[in-house]
Predict the 3D structure of the following.
Amino acid sequence: MTQALLTITEAAAKRIKVLLEGRGKSSYGIRIGIRSKGCTGLSYTLEFADVAGPYDDVIEAHGVKVLVDPKAVMFILGSQMDYVEDKLSSGFVFQNPNEKGRCGCGESFHV
């Protein structure tokens, strides 16, 4: 049995659709990446994608396309992407089984 690279909740897909529609130009989807940042080392990045790169993994869920940068695959394997709104904040949230720790502010993580 193989593990899914990334699952996307319906709430995340709805928010992605809103962002893509508000961009004002045609987009292929969004790309998820990882970069060095924060107290514990890594953070997620999201950007609009006009085309899929030759090595991007493409995940289609709930009518949206999410590309995963090839350098991020080993860090997010098995993760779930969700979108959460509450009274004080809103944003994409990743449930990542590979995380070994997270900084107190929630900005970064390490594996």
